[in-house]
Amino acid sequence: MLGSSRLVEILDGAAEPVSLTEAKAQLRVDYSADDTLIESLVSAARHDCENYLYISLIPQRRKALFDCFGPLTMMGPVGSVESVQYLNTEGVLTTLASEAYRVVEDIVLRIEPVESWPATSGGKGSVTVTYTTASGAISPGVKTAILLKVSDMYANREDPTRAKSTLSNNMLDLERVMEF
Questions:
Q1: Which of 69, 93, 123, 175 could be cross-linked to 117 through a Cys-Cys bond (beta carbons 3.0 to 4.6 Å apart)?
Q2: What are the start-end ranges of the E strands in 48-171?
Q3: Does this model's pTM top 0.85?
């Protein structure tokens, strides 16, 4: 796994890449009784696509947890890094000075030490990176995959075990960030 983001907060004003109108057109729904459900399905489908692609599609504030320092690779594209905190060898939460690390901007966000990483307590989640992502590019294929996922979830909302994402994931494979 490239990284681990456990807390995700959508930043104010961030619009979903698929509008309610577009989703309702895909579903052939012309009434408003299901609007709240459809909006939640769009959000869930976008989140599923982000996790599959490992790219943020809308601006978000994230906390990524790691068990130790090493390759700190997180979902991009990067907006900014708010803080890098760790439990030192005495178990005290310490904030790493921004001069001690550099942000490598690529498709994914990587944080590397300027010299070397400090020692940590080594416990689960002993390193926390709080950062914001910028909007990633939303290609027609990604938008279509979101709409297909919404269709699957809406059609199978009574029996979620029947929901299939094969076609949408096949469309996303061409844009997926992979670790090499």
A1: 69
A2: 60-66, 72-74, 78-87, 93-95, 101-105, 109-113, 127-133
A3: no
